[in-house]
Amino acid sequence: MHGLESGAGTESVSAWIKRQIRRDEIERYLDGGKDFIDEGHIERTLASNVQAPADRIRGILQKARSIKLLDDADVAALATVTDPELRQEVLAAAHEIKTAVYDNRVVTFAPLYCGSKCVNNCRYCGFRSDNSAVQRRSLGMDEVEAEARVLAGKIGHKRLVMVYGEHPDTGADYIADSVRRVYAVKEKVRSGVGEIRRVNINAAPMSIADLVKIREAGIGTYQVFQETYHKATYRFVHPEGTLKGDYHWRLYCLHRAMEAGIDDVAIGALFGLYDWRFEVMGLVAHARDLERRFGVGPHTVSVPRLEPAAGTDFSWVGHWVSDDDFRYLIAVLRVSIPYAGLIVTNREKPDMLRSVIGMCTQRDADTRVGLGAYADAFSGSDEQKAERQQFMLGDTRSLDQIVRELASMGHIVSFCTAGYRCGRTGKKIMDALRCGSEGHLCKLNAILTFQEWLEDFASPDTRLAGEAIIERELSEVQLRVPGDFSQAAFEHLVDARKRIMAGERDLYF
Ligand code: SAM
Ligand code: SF4
Asked: CB-based burial of residue 51 (10 Å sphere; 0-12 exposed, 13-18 middle, 19+ buried)?
């Protein structure tokens, strides 16, 4: 079966495709018929800021410490630095800014792939419709539940990113149903209940009406990566006549999401398709347009890098990103959009992940990208199967191992989802991040949710490493009384931790 066949309903796939794109939901955002990616301006700005003197770069890093989006000329100056020592200064500032805004917290999640059927034909993706090397199917709701039971009950995840191909079998109604099914899972674990508390979505652009449907199912962040902001490259990798071939439908889908009331949106570029400096400028332009129109920028920025995929030729790729450039582009993004979370994934190998995690806020763990692969992993068949997945993974270590490694590096894994559940989203969370107040609450909640995870899921070694981090965090909070925390908050924290150790769950500030 290829990616174009449908098992759902009576409507043909081509009729479904025809009703997806609404011109009026693109045109309303254009300014005088123009979008916000001015390629001439990006190229000129990159060219005219090459070889900026060290003093200017240091001045830009100073500006970034005020946690505001940098202007184009400054981003271009950072992106075009080649001097290794100056690059080191940018990397150091990126680590410092990450710590100032998000402290030593790292959030972990797992992707849950729900379908490999897709009507598009993206040149780089194993799920593209003309690829016969990949098996096609979408998970039934019982299978979605089975995956969630493993993720929540055996591995201990609290957050997922559910991932969907673009296909009528996995359209907005399916997405909404599958999200509800995941939230309903409650698994008995050692002394508590394993449950997914936040479901983010990575799915194709939708109309405002469909976005309202998925918002009502309680999605967290809506992620859509533009893949490349460079229009000729976009056309080359996304064939004309496919849904994804419409650059503007994709470029404005997060604008539509904001209108649909989804105020946590996430941008990203697939690094390797075009010059990474151009893509960084495109991501910043995207963040700026969201800020300008809705007063809130992207909640996160993702940096996927091209990976091999079954049945997929990559001989056309002209912009592979080297490891050094990849680390550096993460630093430039960290400094340029300082308030946004930065997500790095298990497409990368452990060494790379270790070297960039200090600039990032989220990573996945215990990841399987094959359909139904979490349930498989716990029934004895655990290898990656190229024909069942979109691309191959660089890091397949367990969440327990990752938590232990992060603890040994001084990071605390936060399983907190309280901010979202208390309505601290969109502009509210962004303002709080800028002034540091969200960070204070997050620090306390990270401690409590980490303790909870250690109780319910950690191996003995990971528990030891985790308890050491918690003790260190508690001393730090105590030292910051009464400046950043009240004595009452500290006492409440110590008491809540004891209650968690005695079996209570889901306590947060
Ligand atoms: N079909 C939806 C779409 O295209 O937006 C949903 C997600 S797609 C399954 C998730 C992301 O995987 C894409 O946005 C793309 O950035 C990334 N991706 C696709 N092929 C890849 C590859 N060969 N290597 C690394 N990332 C890839
Ligand atoms: Fe389909 Fe998304 Fe893969 Fe493109 S990247 S072929 S839209 S699943």
From this structure: exposed
